[in-house]
Amino acid sequence: MSGLSEGSLIANRYKIVRELGEGNFGKTYMAKDLHKPNHPLCVVKQFKPLQSEHGTFRTALRLFNQEAAILQQLGSHPDIPNLDAFFEENNNLYLVQEYIDGNVLSEEIIIGQPWQEEEIIKLLKQILIPLKYVHEKNIVHRDLKPDNLMRRAENGHIVLIDFGAVKQISQEIKKQGTVIGTIGYMPPEQYEGTTAKSCDVYALGVIVIEALTGKKIKEFTGPIQALDSVHHISDGLKNIILKMTRRNDQERYGDEIQKKANYGKQKEPDYTEFKKIVQRVEEILVCTDFNKNPVTLACNGNWKTIEGTINGVSLQDNNLLVKLSANSQIYNISVSLDITQEIFGSNKLTEIQGKSVVVKTNQMSRDNKITVEQPAQLKILNDK
């Protein structure tokens, strides 16, 4: 298949910088958008299926437009690449997306280097943000794996990429109902052609297992054996991952009734189970003392939630002292400087003053003193 050379111009707008990759049915390029100020970088995907007497190209064009429409709908989320354009030119299909400056997750999950529980929990939370959004649109990714997750260099967020446009177009042309996905990350029912949100949940569980063990899932007989080899995480987190990777799809997080079709009109989905995952991850973040090895859940007593406004900020030793006005009372909150940047996005006192926050604690002295030990204990409700 002929490709585009450096300097090539398509749609009289996108100037090719270099080739990024190639598949059986197309190529991907980095390009500059000459119609935007400062000519920002973008990603151009070129699809060029072979024509045939049976209208192969026409079928490809129809499916491409369908996929592009879905990507356009998803593009409103900050952790999903924006769709800039899609068009047909000289018997080639083109899809133009936002360029994500960062690295794929597969570069972070390194063989022989197991992740710690705190890192796993943070990763779960980051991936669940865009994945939950996709599922709310009644769309299943189908091919969730480390190569399809990118960490944005600007803010460290995980971005969900590659929604299978090439795979859908090319594979459906070859054979209707061809299984889409990557071996190892697909649950049993996906090999049979079934597509449901629980398939993505299973794949996410496998990704987490590979990070926890520092090994590829193919080195184990399955998720249960893999998790049996892990001894540095809490039972709470282990049980979450076990439920995500159940062989029986009915026992996993996700809809109770699995559906093969994920693009058609369907009833409003029930995200109760997904919310349970997020809630459980939040609980572990707040309740766990990561200084202990192995890490154990440390939630004791009744947890109290306080919402108020910061009306005083100062520094003392290695702590940030915050005065919080809430419920006609003043709460004195001590926050380690090590987590101040992560919580407030800044270490400048003037930028922290006046913010509305919510604090979770199960230990508070009589004079309303609170110690924040984990970032998840204190959240910003709005920016000043």
Can I get a quick summary?
The protein is α+β, with helices and mostly antiparallel strands. It folds into three domains: 9-98, Phosphorylase Kinase, domain 1 (2-Layer Sandwich), CATH 3.30.200; 102-297, Transferase(Phosphotransferase) domain 1 (Transferase(Phosphotransferase), domain 1, Orthogonal Bundle); 304-380, Beta Barrel (OB fold (Dihydrolipoamide Acetyltransferase, E2P)), CATH 2.40.50.140.
Report on this model:
Its EC number is 2.7.11.1. It catalyses: L-seryl-[protein] + ATP = O-phospho-L-seryl-[protein] + ADP + H(+); L-threonyl-[protein] + ATP = O-phospho-L-threonyl-[protein] + ADP + H(+). This protein is of the alpha+beta class and 384 residues long. It folds into 3 domains: 9-98, 2-Layer Sandwich (Phosphorylase Kinase, domain 1); 102-297, Orthogonal Bundle (Transferase(Phosphotransferase), domain 1), CATH 1.10.510.10; 304-380, OB fold (Dihydrolipoamide Acetyltransferase, E2P), CATH 2.40.50. Helices cover 30% and strands 25% of the residues. The protein has 10 helices and 17 strands. It starts with 8 loop residues before the first strand and ends with a strand.
